[in-house]
Design a protein that fits this description.
Elements (H helix, E strand, L loop, with lengths): L2 H16 L6 E7 L6 E7 L4 H4 L1 E6 L2 E6 L16
Antiparallel strand pairs: 1-2, 3-4
């Protein structure tokens, strides 16, 4: 696929994503502009107070979610993704 077409597709996707008021969760995978590095972006959003009470953390090379404020957790299985 040519570089110009890829840039246009990426711009179209970002425009579509930016117009969505609640994209929920998503992943974007690609390369840096110079093509030297792999790039991966992942996000999660929350509508409820419980869902917004989570942050990404890392430990021993793992990425997981945990409560930003453990005292505010109402239902941990809905916000804690740790394996």
């Amino acid at each position: 696929m040519n570089t110009e077409l890829m840039k246009n597709m990426a711009a179209d996707n970002m425009l579509e994503l930016s117009s969505n008021p609640y994209p929920g969760r998503g992943i974007i995978v690609g390369t840096s502009e110079d093509g030297k590095f792999a790039v991966q972006i992942y996000w999660i959003m929350g509508r409820s107070d419980n869902s917004r009470n989570r942050v990404f953390s890392t430990e021993d090379g793992r990425l997981f979610t945990e409560a930003a404020d453990p005292d505010k957790v109402k239902d941990p299985k809905l916000i804690i993704y740790k394996q």
